[in-house]
Amino acid sequence: MRFGCCLNMVSTGTDGTGIENIEKLKEAGFDYVELPLAELTRLTDTEREDVVGRLNSSGMSCEVCNNMFPKTFRLTGPDVRIDEVLAYAEKALHIAGSIGAKSVVFGSGPAKMVPEGFPLDEGYRQVVDLLKLVDPIAGRNGITIAIEPLRKAECNLINTFEEGVRLAEDVGGENIKVLVDYYHLTVEDESPEKVRKYGKGSLVHVHMANPDGRVFPKAMDESDYRPFFNALGEIGYKGRVSCEAYSENFSEDAPSTLRFFRDNMTQEV
């Protein structure tokens, strides 16, 4: 496995990317960084060049981007402007590919939220149709889209890993896969058995957090991690795992979490 961290969750800078923490992440020993695509896309060309320069000078790679669509976008409901959405996707996925990202996370709860009074099944079809159009764009940029199921408090569509897998199957795209986030899985009380049942061949990325406060995970007794780790092992998952969590002391939390990952996620089950 390769271990990374979503720096936007610990961002203190005005651009919201969290890139100011990249040297600390490198010092802690992580393999890669996960940066927010909507924030990267909003930067000027010069500002993005500065981000790339800081990545290069630190020796870290941005292998994954999260936060695919801005909160202001509408992906469901009567006000979708599909031409604008696809134009953004073309630009954003090109940026992601140009900085070396291999996967882009599609959670985008505010953008995907089905408006009140609009049929959920129609909103679902809109997302299916959108991803069918995004699939070849992702392919041209060497990107795999990772559908991220989100807890109901963040979105009313695609809340479980099983639903994420079904969405990927309904899209049927070569570059559309699924992410599992331990925090959302736990909050929605979804059994890790679903990862074991549906994950092989569909799971492309993992997010981790201690669900008690959505903070950096550090110890096995914080949560019932073992069944989840066992499920990943049993489907042969050897891909990327990103810590997507909040921290009040990143310099101390980052190395502790990396030790936790290496001690508990790579062992034989």
From TrEMBL:
Keyword Lipid biosynthesis attached: no
Highest taxon, organism lineage: Bacteria
Tagged with keyword Cell membrane: no
Domain Xylose isomerase-like TIM barrel, residue spans: 22-262
Entry-linked Gene3D superfamilies: Divalent-metal-dependent TIM barrel enzymes
InterPro entries per record: IolE/XylAMocC-like, Xyl_isomerase-like_sf, Xyl_isomerase-like_TIM-brl
Keywords: Isomerase
GO molecular function per UniProt: isomerase activity
Pfam families membership: AP_endonuc_2
Protein name: Xylose isomerase
